[in-house]
Amino acid sequence: MTTVRLPLFPLNSVLFPGLVLPLNVFEERYRAMMRELLKTPEDEPRRFAVVAIRDGHEVAPSAPGMPDPTSLPERGPAAGFGTDPAKAFHKVGCIADAATIRERTDGSFEVLATGTTRVRLLSVEASGPFLTAELETLSEEPGDEAAPLAEGVLRSFRQYQKRLAGARERSLTTGADLPDEPGVVSYLVAAAMMLDTPTKQRLLQAPDTASRLRDELKLLRSETAIIRNLPSLPASDLTRGPTSLN
């Protein structure tokens, strides 16, 4: 078992390996994290771990709460996550490698990172200015019949895209050709589908690529059938979801 200790960045969303993560960092605990990461030499990876927050847990308030307008918001690295922060997070997350960390004049940061490796959360430490975690790296096994499953998922994903574009009353625009490597396909489709956080989390922590692809195939067929029977909806209705205060 390979373990590593890294800064921990909880989000109301799931990060997958290979996917780009833009962040607008303005809370002090995460500003402190970015200042620490900037101390890492430029020729070394500036890594932190991203975990999804479990339903029912929110990030720390950014203003005094109601109904008492004089009360002060909770502060500190674990603010908003209870006395045992580890219980507030899903147990499988993803390491992010920050390619860009740009500090603004107001002290906030613009960050662009990429997911690299899945990790399992072992413990959380809240004694410093930001959360850190001990993490176990998770290997990605292909599983049985990953290649033909990936082909089926890509076909279903293209159909899903067409149906979704029709429901939005928009034309379908495609960029570069989709990849065909099963692991990459499984993460790309998981990130691109309009799913809630618990479902995306389930896909992230699938035991192997083939299992993830099988789950995605069922989800794509189900979601495409639902969209087919929907009337035309504004795009905002189809894409509305929770936002993350980070």
UniProtKB/TrEMBL annotation:
SMART domains: LON. Transmembrane segments: none annotated. It comes from the Bacteria. SUPFAM superfamilies: PUA domain-like. Residues 6-224 form the Lon N-terminal domain. InterPro entries: Lon_prtase_N, Lon_prtase_N_sf, PUA-like_sf. This is Lon protease-like protein. It comes from Streptomyces africanus.
